[in-house]
Write a structure and sequence with these properties.
Layout (H helix, E strand, L loop, with lengths): L1 E9 L17 H11 L4 E5 H12 L7 E5 L15 E4 L3 H10 L4 E4 L3 H9 L5 E7 L18 E8 L5 E7 L2
Parallel strand pairs: 1-5, 1-6, 2-3, 2-5, 3-4
Antiparallel strand pairs: 6-8, 7-8
Bound molecules: NADP nicotinamide-adenine-dinucleotide phosphate.
NADP nicotinamide-adenine-dinucleotide phosphate (NAP) binds next to strand 1, strand 2, helix 2 and helix 4.
Length: about 180
């Protein structure tokens, strides 16, 4: 199983603008890239907060092409929203979750935030690649890319302009 973190951030490293939840700050170029990129993943994982922000949008876009798993401490609270194989809620540890998904035959997992989930996955050594969109913005404050202390070295795989001002940087995590 390969795990790739996909996120869009300001140049100064924030995945939300100040205290505004969601990703309204991202460019059309990033939205296009994100939709296209997600097509290459057969499963994805996100945290409860990210799910609650994107919930209405997400629930209209479920498909059998990708299993979405929400990590939450209260999976039972979402029983009515669960669609096995498409939208699942789990309270197992990150390593167990990735192992379980691999055992079910999934191969490419997109880690879709937010900062707490990024931290959990990095601390467990579960992230293989990062695909980071850097928007030409400075926020000074907001939700950081990572909510936990980590010490990770990366190798740059590629850098690409998604538009005149927006960059896509792909990194591999050095083991
Ligand atoms: N710019 C981007 O690319 C991007 C990407 C993703 C998200 N975002 C934004 O980032 C914000 C959310 O980030 P966040 O860091 O606040 O939250 P988050 O990582 O999305 O979710 C945190 C939640 O995950 C669950 N969780 C955390 N650790 C867990 C564990 N060990 N076991 C089980 N569940 C666990 C809990 O859910 P429960 O509370 O349900 O228990 C916790 O409240 C949102 O505003 C979102 O829109 C931006």
């Amino acid at each position: 199983m390969r795990v790739t973190l996909l996120a869009a951030q300001s140049l100064d490293g924030f995945i939300t603008k100040h205290d505004q939840a969601g990703t309204d700050f991202t460019s059309e170029a990033d939205k296009l890239h994100f939709r296209k990129a997600l097509g290459g993943f057969d499963c994805s994982v996100m945290g409860g907060e990210t799910y609650r922000v994107a919930r209405d949008f997400l629930r209209t876009r479920l498909s059998t092409q990708r299993c979405r798993v929400v990590l939450t401490r209260s999976p039972e609270a979402y029983a009515a929203e669960a669609v096995p194989g498409q939208l699942e809620f789990s309270n197992v540890g990150a390593a167990t979750l990735v192992k379980d998904l691999a055992a079910r035959g999934f191969q490419h997992c997109a880690l879709l935030g937010g900062a707490q989930l990024h931290g959990l996955f990095f601390q467990a050594g579960l992230v293989d690649e990062l695909w980071i969109t850097v928007e030409p913005l400075l926020f000074g404050q907001g939700t950081p890319l990572l909510a936990k202390r980590v010490d990770v070295r990366l190798s740059l795989l590629s850098s690409e302009k998604l538009s005149a001002d927006t960059l896509l940087l792909k990194y591999r995590v050095q083991r």
